[in-house]
Amino acid sequence: MEKEKANIGLKAGIVWQKLHETGYITIPELALKLQASVEDVTLAVGWLAREDKVFMERRNGLLYIRIS
To answer: What global pTM score does this model have?
Structure first.
């Protein structure tokens, strides 16, 4: 389990960096840009949300994420 947590934390850092470049973006779009699975990106965004580092907003039925 500790290895998985470290891996998610590493991916959260990668997501954080990409969010600085992109601004508002959906999880599927972010996954495409990172060439990662939607599941991995979702876990990373959850990690960042827990730390209050991202802002999420629903627009037209899609969930957008940005740095808070």
So the answer is: 0.87
